[in-house]
Amino acid sequence: MPETTTSASTTASPLLAQGPFVTDGGLETDLLFHHGFELPEFASFPLLEDAAGRNALDAYYDQYAEIAAAAGQGLMLETPTWRANPDWADRIGYDAVALDRANRSAVALVRRAQERSGLERTLVVGDHGPRGDGYVAGQRVDADEMADYHAVQARSFAAEGVDLIHAMTMTTPEEGIGVVRAARSVGVPVAVSFTVETDGRLPDGTPLRDAVVRLDAEAAPDWFGVNCAHPTHLAPALDGGAWQQRIASVRPNASTMTHEELDAMEELDEGDLDLLTSSLDGLRGSLPALAVVGGCCGTDARHVAALWGV
């Protein structure tokens, strides 16, 4: 099994002291390309509305419980709510009441998956995605505005008692700050995962190091992660600085393509599995707090199992 360690010197949150944790993979790309589901605006949360969708989600999460059991690790499952924020929900016909119901239902579904697993070390995570496109930074945003925006979803998650709020595929420091403030306002631990381009910088051009340092100064999350980028894209960001001890989660893409190239693809690039595992293994020594490993776009249970050596 690949070495994944946490220690008192590098772990910022008591939650991670229970780790390491297996987490899930590329939910949306798996359901879309492998199972034929239509996902309006790349949103998976509408699947909660009917039995077929819920059954597909149950089967999806159960795979990762099996991987965690085989690896002898904890299980951290994230709600299918990456698009379940007000702007994206409005595009597919969800008003505020329906959106709150969807976020709450997502927590209940994931909690049932955790219970089915029979594992002792499990965490239920409320997943926040970006207000805009996860591959494009767009216009510069205001951190306070982002806090108000993400508070809508955070309140739903807090009401359902999630263990953690996780902002994934953040493209700017400002939105990351906003999610942290939103989570803190409802009293829930929070992690922030940035995505990076092939040069290790955020889509807005910010070096990953600068984003981490800025958030720690202005609105520190419990820990940081990187998602939706191949390990070879993360590598250029790592300069050996102490800030790397704050990176506790990695959920890589299967493909080495750029975000722009992936956005234009009509077929799924499942990547080179050997390259994925070897390149992540090559980063482990630079990430002493790494405690959560899963996948992102293009990955499925096969990729995550390989990353855990099972």
From TrEMBL:
Zn(2+) binds at residues 228, 296-297. GO terms for molecular function: metal ion binding; methyltransferase activity. GO terms for biological process: methylation. Keywords: Metal-binding, Methyltransferase, Transferase, Zinc. Gene3D superfamilies: Homocysteine-binding-like domain (3.20.20.330). Residues 9-310 form the Hcy-binding domain. It holds the Pfam family S-methyl_trans. Its cofactor is Zn(2+). InterPro entries: HCY_dom, HCY_dom_sf. The keyword Metal-binding applies. This is Homocysteine S-methyltransferase.
